[in-house]
Each structure stands twice: as C-alpha cells, then as structure tokens.
C-alpha cells in the first residue's frame, strides 16, 4: 500500500515502552506522564518535526534522510491500543492528518471487561473458524469439573498439567489459577489464524475427540502451553506470579531482547485510564465457574498491590470516555476496522447487527454509538485481533505457513476489508489534495 501511494512509513515508539523512557525507572511516581494524552502530544510533535524541514535524523533506525520537508498528507495507522491513538489523534489534532485507520480499537473504556470471555465463547462455537457447539460445551463441562475438584479439595484428581503449582490459600491465588487457565484460551482466540499456534480449530478438535472433557481440556491446555515451552503445573500465586512480576520497576528497553516486557507499563495505563480488566463474572460463556476472577482481584487488588496505591477507586474511565467520546467520536475521515471473532471488538465501534453493538458492563452503563458521515466501519467476519493490518496472503499459499494447520488464505471477507480500507485511504488523500489546491489558488 505504501508503494502504491508513494508513501514513507514511519513508526513512532510510545514513551515508556522500549527505549523511549524519560525517567530512570518505572516506580509509580515516575509513571505520571504515561498517559494517552501525552502519547498523542508526542505524536503531534513528532509529526511536525518530520514535516518541518529536510533533515537527517541519525536517531532513527535506520537513519532517516529527508531531502525536503515531508509536508504532504499524513494517514495514521494503529491496532489495538494504538488503534485508539490513531482515531484519537485524528480527533484531537484534525489538521495534522488527512485520515486515520483504527484497527481493533477498544474505544470504550470499561473497568470490568466481562464481554471478553463472552467473545471467547462465541469463537469456540463458531463453525467458520473450526469451532462448534460441542467444543463450547466440552470446555464448559471441563471448567465446571476443574472448579468442582478445587472446591472439594481433591486436587490430586486433576490431570497433572492442570494442577496448581502451589497452595490455593486465598481467593486471590484461586483467581490467579483460574486466570491462567482462562488466559490460555484467550490467546488462542485473540490471535487465531495469525501465524501463532494453536488455532481454534486445533483446540476444538482435541476438545471434541474423547469422552472425558477434563482429560481433553488438559490435552488442549498442554497443546497451548507447549508452544511456550510447556509447563508441569499452573501458576497459582497472586503475590509471586502476578504482583512481584509486575512490581519490577527497572527499565530494560535499551538493546531489548525477548526477555523485555511492557506489562508494568500497560497495566499502569489500565489501572489509571482504561480498565479493560478481563473477568469471568459474565453469564454467557463457558468459563463461568471460574468466578474468583472478578474485577475486585483482577483490577482493584492488582492495582493497589503493584503500584502501592491506597483507597484505589478504579480507573478514570468516565473521563476517558468523556474526553475521547467512547463510541461517539464525532470525528472525520476515520476508518474503524474490527473482526467479529476478536474479543476486543466488544468495546469497539461495530455493525449494528453484531451481538456486542453498544455493549458495556456495570450498573447503568451507557455507550451510544454514533457515526459522522466520514467515519467508516469495516467489520470483517471470522477474523481476530488486528487481522486487517497484515499484508494480503501473508498466511496463505506460498507463505511459510502453507501447507499446515496455520495455513490461512485470505477469505473473501478479508479481501473485502483490505479493499475497503484502501478505498478509504484514496478518499482521504483526494480530499486533502483538493483542499490544498483550493488553498493555493
């Protein structure tokens, strides 16, 4: 696409992530400038810096050499939280971009994100991606059985790979254990058919191939964690596995390798601005028996313990939704792309026919979806997180994924989505050039 439009591609690192940190460590007081508003301001300054004059920037990787000012039209792209930033940049700095492509953006901030689990359940039952009602039912029965054995104290009856690594001495430990098992299936659904094993189809094949859902659940779990080096037990210590891990305030961005993480930074933003805490306290999904994973543990207690907060009242989601508009952006030239099998689409701007249209959780919650004439929805059937951001046929024939279970040729829905996004970009650029011509006259 960049080649088609003669575009220069620039990627900006978010402050506090990677090598872009303005403070010596990530202790809580030093995270004060880790906000979406500051990130947007950084992006605006970066855009104007690049556009101001011909320059040679040796700090870029690779070195950026511009012989003339880059004062042509800009289109901003982003997926997931950066998808939010792309839409919000066009909203808050409308003159600095001709348009925005916002992919898989959870634009509605929500403390207790119950719908995530509900989309996971929907995906496990969706036949177009290899799910089935039988798969959903088997997972449901297995989860119920796991929790039953835990409640009865009969942990020795759990298959080896499902046993907790330590004692479940508190509700927080139980939530950690439940969250670990739930998280395995979260990852499968969120990144389904995006080159990352296993797929929903592979997991569901195991779940329906047997007579004991608990055994099949253990086998599916081992298939999932086997891609990450395997595990002999399930993490179960709230303090050790969660709090201590997230409390590491040292930066490791410079010369970062695979050991670097950005979890502390992201959870801070979640605690501060957005919430997004994925719980199992909803009612329409196969993990309802894992009820300890509620927003009290996954949100409040986590934030208090990791960032040494007292009297934590939750993230300021009300301000975030008021400041950015939630699902009523009132913006211009913004494309909003989502896949209906992506759990994050439940907080996005989607088709009116979707089950999660205007969805929200919490007493008296409201999230009205309204679009301007130049805001466009691209809703792609059967796809997961940020699928539209991959180049055409990246997982299809001729790629490293074919033949094999990860082979995923572009569906007609994906091809339609790519074409729609391309057409919108052409429209944004044509409008920019028409305005420029009128200004020059």
UniProtKB/TrEMBL annotation:
<keyword id="KW-0732">Signal</keyword>
<dbReference type="GO" id="GO:0008239">
    <property type="term" value="F:dipeptidyl-peptidase activity"/>
</dbReference>
<dbReference type="GO" id="GO:0006508">
    <property type="term" value="P:proteolysis"/>
</dbReference>
<dbReference type="InterPro" id="IPR029058">
    <property type="entry name" value="AB_hydrolase_fold"/>
</dbReference>
<dbReference type="InterPro" id="IPR008758">
    <property type="entry name" value="Peptidase_S28"/>
</dbReference>
<dbReference type="GO" id="GO:0070008">
    <property type="term" value="F:serine-type exopeptidase activity"/>
</dbReference>
<keyword id="KW-0645">Protease</keyword>
<comment type="similarity">
    <text>Belongs to the peptidase S28 family.</text>
</comment>
<dbReference type="InterPro" id="IPR042269">
    <property type="entry name" value="Ser_carbopepase_S28_SKS"/>
</dbReference>
<dbReference type="Pfam" id="PF05577">
    <property type="entry name" value="Peptidase_S28"/>
</dbReference>
<protein>
    <submittedName>
        <fullName>Uncharacterized protein</fullName>
    </submittedName>
</protein>
<keyword id="KW-0378">Hydrolase</keyword>
<keyword id="KW-0325">Glycoprotein</keyword>
């Amino acid at each position: 696409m960049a080649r088609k439009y003669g575009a220069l591609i620039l990627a900006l690192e978010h402050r506090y992530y990677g090598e872009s940190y303005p403070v010596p460590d990530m202790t809580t007081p030093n995270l004060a400038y880790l906000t979406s508003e500051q990130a947007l301001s950084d992006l605006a300054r970066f855009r104007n810096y690049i556009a101001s004059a011909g320059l040679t920037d040796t700090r870029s990787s690779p070195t950026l050499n511009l012989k003339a000012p880059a004062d042509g039209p800009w289109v901003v792209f982003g997926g997931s939280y950066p998808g939010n930033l792309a839409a919000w940049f066009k909203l808050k700095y409308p003159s600095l971009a001709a348009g925005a492509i916002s992919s898989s953006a959870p634009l509605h901030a929500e403390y207790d994100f119950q719908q995530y689990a509900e989309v996971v359940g929907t995906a496990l039952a969706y036949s177009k991606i290899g799910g089935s009602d039988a798969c959903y039912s088997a997972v449901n029965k297995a989860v119920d059985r796991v929790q039953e054995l835990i409640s009865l104290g009969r942990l020795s009856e759990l298959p080896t790979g499902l046993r907790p690594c330590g004692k479940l001495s508190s509700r927080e430990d139980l939530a950690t254990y439940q969250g670990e098992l739930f998280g395995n299936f979260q990852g499968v659904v969120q990144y389904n058919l995006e080159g990352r094993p296993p797929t929903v189809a592979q997991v569901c094949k195991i779940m329906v191939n047997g007579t004991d859902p608990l055994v099949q659940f253990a086998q599916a779990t081992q298939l999932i964690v086997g891609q990450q080096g395997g595990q002999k037990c399930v993490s179960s210590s709230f303090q050790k596995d969660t709090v201590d891990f997230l409390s590491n305030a040292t930066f490791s961005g410079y010369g970062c390798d695979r050991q670097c993480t950005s979890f502390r930074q992201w959870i801070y933003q979640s605690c501060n601005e957005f919430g997004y805490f994925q719980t199992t306290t909803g009612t329409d999904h196969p993990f309802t028996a894992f009820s300890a994973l509620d927003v009290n543990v996954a949100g409040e207690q986590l934030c208090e313990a990791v960032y040494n907060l007292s009297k934590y009242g939750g993230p300021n989601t009300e301000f975030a939704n008021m400041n950015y508009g939630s699902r009523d952006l009132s913006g211009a030239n913004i494309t909003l792309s989502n896949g209906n099998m992506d759990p994050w689409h439940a907080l996005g701007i989607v088709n009116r026919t979707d089950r999660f249209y205007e969805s929200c959780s919490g007493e008296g919650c409201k999230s009205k979806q309204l679009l301007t004439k130049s805001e466009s929805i691209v809703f792609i059937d059967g796809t997961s997180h940020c699928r539209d951001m991959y180049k055409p046929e990246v997982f299809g024939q001729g790629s490293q994924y074919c033949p094999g279970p990860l082979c995923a040729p572009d569906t007609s829905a994906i091809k339609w989505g790519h074409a729609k996004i391309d057409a919108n970009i052409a429209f944004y650029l044509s409008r920019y050039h028409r305005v420029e011509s009128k200004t020059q006259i």
